[in-house]
Specification:
The complex is a heterodimer of chains A (114) and B (111).
Chain A (H helix, E strand, L loop, with lengths): L3 E4 L2 E4 L4 E8 L5 E7 L6 E7 L2 E5 L6 E7 L2 E7 L7 E8 L9 E2 L3 E5 L1
Parallel strand pairs in A: 2-11
Antiparallel strand pairs in A: 1-3, 3-8, 4-5, 4-9, 5-6, 7-8, 9-10, 9-11
Chain B lengths: L3 E3 L4 E4 L4 E7 L6 E7 L5 E7 L4 E3 L2 E6 L4 E6 L8 E9 L5 E4 L3 E6 L1
Parallel strand pairs in B: 2-11
Antiparallel strand pairs in B: 1-3, 3-8, 4-5, 4-9, 6-7, 7-8, 9-10, 9-11
The chains are: A mainly beta (114), B mainly beta (111).
């Protein structure tokens, strides 16, 4: 399935590195999301973009910086991360940001911060 | 109290068994509810939406109990391929639109 793609699939970075995660959706959706999934914890919604505008930022540290150049692409720029930021980062999209809209997830980027 | 709570399990059941999971939510103004399935090291995928009237999709039945603030998922005639983590998702509009995932219930179906 290639509805929502994410690159890279795996990333190892040092605390002083700068890297970016990329998400692309081919579903014609208007809302895109970044989630963090740590071991044995629920998915945590980080950011929401609706029609390219950021509509939600759930108290995410500034070392995570999202960018949404258009409705099909979403980036998460990373800098000066901490080891506790190691997790699976999932991108999702939905037609709209609404209570009945189904979110479709990408395969995720497994991030390890050394 | 967590906004969405699930029994983490694991539930270990033999093939052919019927198994049920519950998920409780704390916000009485919650508007919509879903069950997602997540296989090991894979992304979550929508299993089914949950409606007040209940809904059924093959061997899967989902129910919503607003009075007691929980949703349930029933799996009949379990298959080995049903082994996964089942995530409960709740949306509400209190203090802005929010999507809350439960931590998931792990199911192992054994031959």
């Amino acid at each position: 399935e290639t509805g929502v793609t994410q690159t890279p699939r795996h990333l190892v970075m040092g605390m002083t590195n700068k890297k970016s995660l990329k998400c692309e959706q081919h579903l014609g959706h208007n809302a895109m999301y970044w989630y963090k999934q740590s071991a044995k914890k629920p998915l945590e919604l980080m950011f929401v973009y609706n029609f390219k505008e950021q509509t939600e930022n759930n108290s995410v540290p500034s070392r995570f910086s999202p960018e949404c150049p258009n409705s099909s692409h979403l980036f998460l720029h990373l800098h000066t991360l901490q080891p506790e930021d190691s997790a699976l980062y999932l991108c999702a999209s939905s037609y709209l940001r609404g209570p009945t809209d189904t979110q479709y997830f990408g395969p995720g980027t497994r991030l390890t911060v050394l | 109290r967590k906004e969405v709570e699930q029994d983490p399990g694991p539930f270990n059941v033999p093939e052919g068994a019927t198994v049920a999971f519950n998920c409780t939510y704390s916000n009485s103004a919650s508007q919509s509810f879903f069950w997602y399935r997540q296989d090991c090291r894979k992304e979550p995928k929508l299993l089914m939406s949950v409606y007040s009237s209940g809904n059924e999709d093959g061997r899967f039945t989902a129910q919503l109990n607003r009075a007691s603030q929980y949703i349930s998922l029933l799996i009949r005639d379990s298959k080995l391929s049903d082994s996964a983590t089942y995530l409960c998702v709740v949306n509400h509009l209190t203090g802005g639109f929010k999507t809350i995932f439960g931590a998931g219930t792990r199911l192992f179906v054994k031959a």
